[in-house]
Amino acid sequence: MRDIRKVFNGGVTAVDKISFEIREGEVFGLLGPNGAGKTTTINILATLLKPTSGQASVNGFDCLKEPHRVRENIGIVFQDPSSDDLLTGRENLDLHGLMYGISKAERRKRIKSVLELVELSDRADDRVKYYSGGMWRRLELARGLLHKPKVLFLDEPTLGLDPQSREKVWQYIEGMVQNKELSILLTTHYMEEAERLCSRIAIVDSGKIIVEGAPKELIKGMGGDVVKLKTGDADLAALKSKDYILSVEESDGYLILTACDAKTTLPEILKLAGRVESVEMRSPTLNDVFLHYTGREIREGPAEGGFGKRMMTRAKRR
Q1: Cys staple from 158: which of 19, 63, 140, 166, with CB 3.0 to 4.6 Å?
Q2: Reading across the β-sheet that carries 225-231, which strands appear in turn?
Q3: Closest among 186, 101, 193 to 141, alpha carbons compared
Q4: Which residues are CB-neighbours of 167 under 8 A, at least 6 positions away?
């Protein structure tokens, strides 16, 4: 993507001059809160939306000039489930293969292979409406891989899933990267997901890329330990003046400091912090990186679109 901008009717700028490049065989993550522009970015690359300005290409094909060639080269797992719940898992995959012009014999072979990959062989002939949320997500992963794409788009792939199902999906993604010549663009607002799966990430906020790099390098770049204090009368000017204090942020009534050698400097920090109700000291995380660059934390709120809501509705019907 080169300087991609998307402005919707009413003047809402969803993507604001985003540029990045994904290398062959890597998992590249767009990390940011709901509404940051992550899904809009994927929809532009998948040729579902036209950008207002800028250039985008996938596997060498221009998204505006060669949309059919782009679609031949991509697989996509949307936020919302898009499989037909009145069909079986096998029928959904067969229909997908038919739309991509895959021969009947080849479809059979590939369907068997992807069902085994996501461990759904024993439920392949059950209607999808009887699948759990995790099984549904795994079926969509299988469908996205059926036509052997060069690039796979995963839009919040574990949104709305319980921790056990999320862990399974992570394992499948890791397996796909290890065993296939596949590049993945993943959007997420889960820090652990980005840190575990992505070789590089771009932190996105309000339609802009704030910072880009390998998760470990971004965390290392924080340069110290994180000290989180609950206090109401800290001497902020004095804290900021100390050489060993690298950053000072305020969030939800807490003072969050990044400090060099916090074990040694903590007594002086506490002295300058005034009346302290609680103190926590730890190594920095991606959430601290996000807070450092944006001045706020990512809220891991409920599922957007409808995946989580739809799973809950189906559970109630049962």
Answers
A1: 166
A2: 245-251, 254-259, 225-231, 276-282
A3: 186
A4: none
SS3 172: helix
Q: What is the pLDDT of residue 10?
A: 86
Query: What is the spatial distance between Cα 315 and Cα 130, in angstroms, rounded to a whole number?
Result: 10
pLDDT tens-digit readout, 23-49: 988 999 999 988 899 999 999 999 999
Nearest to 77 by CA among 162, 160, 199: 160
Distance, CA of 56 to CA of 54 (rounded, Å) = 7
Q: Pick the more confident residue, 232 or 21.
A: 21
d(CA 201, CA 113): 30
Q: Is 228 exposed, middle or buried (0-12, 13-18, 19+ CB in 10 A)?
A: middle
By the 8 A CB rule, do 263 and 314 touch?
A: no
Burial class of residue 137, CB neighbours in 10 A (0-12, 13-18, 19+): buried
Backbone angles phi, psi at 175, to 5 degrees: -65, -40
What gap in Å lies between CA 278 and CA 116, rounded to an integer? 50
Which CA distances in Å does 146 have to 8, 92, 150, 251? 33, 11, 11, 45
The more confident residue out of 67 and 299 is 67
Q: How far apart are CA 56 and CA 12, in angstroms?
A: 20
Question: Cα–Cα distances in Å, from 298 out to 129, 153, 307?
Answer: 32, 22, 20
CB of 17 closer than 8 Å to CB of 208:
yes
Question: Taking the complete model, does pTM exceed 0.90, yes or no?
Answer: no
Token duo for residue 202: 């771009």
Task: Decide: 189 and 256 in contact? Cβ < 8 Å.
Answer: no
Taking the C-alpha atoms of residue 307 and residue 158, their distance in angstroms, rounded to an integer, is: 10
